[in-house]
Amino acid sequence: MSTTSSIPEILSHTDNGVLTLTLHRVDKKNSITAAMYAAMADVLEGARADDSVSVLVIQGHETIFSAGNDIGDFLNNPPSTPESPVFRFLRAISTFPKPLVAAVCGPAVGIGTTLLLHCDLIYAGDNAAFAMPFVNLGLCPEAASSLLVPQLMGYPRAAEALLLGEPITAETALEIGMINRIVPPTEANALAQAQARKLAAKPLTSLIETKRLMKKGSTALVAERMNEEAASFGRMLKEPAAREAFTAFMQKRKPDFSAL
Ligand code: COA
Q1: How far is ligand 1, taken at its centre, from the CA of residue 136, in Å?
Q2: Cα-flanking dihedrals φ and ψ of residue 240, to 5°?
Q3: Between 85 and which of 38, 109, 111, 113 could a Cys-Cys bridge form, CB atoms 3.0 to 4.6 Å apart?
Q4: 71-100 pLDDT, tens per residue?
Q5: Which protein residue's CA is at the shortest distance from atom 35 of ligand 1?
Q6: What is the pLDDT of residues 14-42, one digit of tens each?
Q7: Does ligand 1 come within 6 angstroms of the Cβ of 170?
Q8: Distance 168 CA to ligand 1 centre (A)
Q9: Helices of type H across the chain
Q10: 79 in ligand 1 pocket by Cβ < 6 Å?
């Protein structure tokens, strides 16, 4: 078993062909800074090229998967170019050719949910809650979620999730085919590992080709939509609605959009 840890908030280790990436910033609800996006992009890019890695598992903590972008970090260092860490991470995960398995417990907010749209198998704790409150933050969807969420759950449910920003419970996520199974939170990481080990025992060339073929119809559309979303998201981050939403979060108050 080899262990590497790029930065303390992102842990990664490889064991028998399974690379496990753990979000490890629980005191800040696993919110993701630019440095963490860069570290995760590095892990994904390394795993893509490493023949000894067959499967990648992404997991958080039993109480929290991720609160999404670190809002303060985003305010101070908004992503401005395609090479910004968040966009590097999104490209790396959305084009990752090998199986991606996720274990999700507790809240998965913003990119905490949209990154899952690019995972192949998702095991959730019964405390999982998936939310994409981009509109509430004065933003628009990212990670091709404006394309993939309506495809996945149909337009009416997508509108509740993306326009109202209403969280999706684990039970609903299972019912609409967003996740594979619900287990007690203490068992989610172990189940993801067990499924990943099953995959890692199979021929890698077959896994890669099967994933490629299953995704072929959407690969170009996903890349195109992610670029369009990124341009809008980057512009909207600097606009008054997002500034108000982010400042309100930092000041622990409700945003007031009435003057905008
Ligand atoms: N960015 C930065 N810091 C965050 C954060 C984020 N996205 N989410 C949580 N934190 C920080 C809080 O500021 C708090 O820090 P403090 O202890 O220094 O005050 C700490 O993490 C704990 O968060 P708290 O809100 O008290 O935890 P909770 O259990 O009551 O709620 C969440 C958890 C995830 C539901 C809630 O934190 C939340 O909604 N976060 C914002 C999610 C969001 O809008 N993300 C989208 C970003 S684009």
Answers
A1: 15
A2: -60, -40
A3: 38
A4: 999 888 889 888 999 999 999 999 999 999
A5: 107
A6: 999 999 999 999 999 999 999 999 999 99
A7: no
A8: 18
A9: 34-49, 71-76, 85-94, 111-114, 145-153, 155-159, 170-175, 185-200, 204-215, 219-237, 240-250
A10: no
